[in-house]
Structures are given as structure tokens and as C-alpha cells.
Amino acid sequence: MKNWLPIFLALIVPLAGCVTKSQADARARLAFLEGQNQALMRMQLNAPAPQSFGPGVTFTGPVQNPAVPWRIGLTLAQAVVSAQYTGTTDPSAIVIHRNGEDIPVNPKGLLNGEDFALQLGDVIEIKP
User: Fold this and answer.
1) Which one, 7, 48, 62, 102, has the greatest CB density within 10 A?
2) Domain count, the chain
3) Which of 90, 81, 80, 89 is nearest to 60 (CA)?
């Protein structure tokens, strides 16, 4: 029996740490995904402010700044604030001119929280 013990240990010990190819592949995939997630988190923490694109939205009517830089997520209310409306009363009409199409906006609705997403190149006409 003593003669079999070294042979038995010689066969069993190498098998104790064995990992199948599929297990190794799964571990490698998991490690890759964890590293990728960490890199994405670092990129998000160091991300710059939302990018703006030159004078991308223009205004006609009583505003102090007729050209407002467009950025992703820019809304009509934000653009009107940036343009600094100078009328003495609330606007009587607002029209968004986009790609040859006129989109009328109810000024009272805008003042009550109804907002609209703007696109690069929009021209906003404000009538006092």
C-alpha cells in the first residue's frame, strides 16, 4: 500500500488545480468586462461638459443675443433664456423655422412648462 501512495499523489495533485478551457475563457471574459467597466467609469468621471457647436440656433425678434450655441439637449426655453428676450411684454407668437418647415409654439404653453427640443440650425422667430 505504501508503494501506491506516491503514485496516487503524483496523479491527484496536478489535477487539483486544473481548470477547463471553458472555465478559463469565462474568467478571461469576466476580467475583460470588469476592466472595460472600470475604464468607462473613469472616462465618465473625467468627461468634459456637454459639447456646444458654435452659433447653431439663431433668433429673430427682440433678443440681446441673436446667436445661441447649440448643444445636445438644448430646449427652446433654455435658448430663449440664453438669447435674453428683451420684449416688454410676453411674446405674442413663437415660430421655429426648421428645414423649410414652420413649427408654431404657443408662448403661454412655453411659460407653463411645455418645452421643445431644438436642432442644430433652427431659427426661432419671436414676435412681441
Assistant:
1) 62
2) 2
3) 80
pTM over 0.85: no
The grid cell for 32 is 475583460
Helix, strand, or coil here: 40?
Answer: helix
- Count of positions (residues) in the chain: 128
d(C-alpha 119, C-alpha 110), whole Å: 17
Q: What is the pLDDT of residues 27-44, one digit of tens each?
A: 877 777 677 767 766 766
Rounded distance between C-alpha atoms, residue 90 and residue 78, angstroms? 16
Contact 51, 71 (CB under 8 A): yes
Cα separation, 36 vs 18, in Å, equals 27
Domain containing 88: what range? 52-127
Co-location of 24 and 75 in the same domain: no
H runs (alpha helix) in 17-115: 21-45, 76-83, 107-111
13, 92, 124 from 60: Cα distances, Å: 83, 14, 6
Helices (H), the chain: 4-16, 21-45, 76-83, 107-111
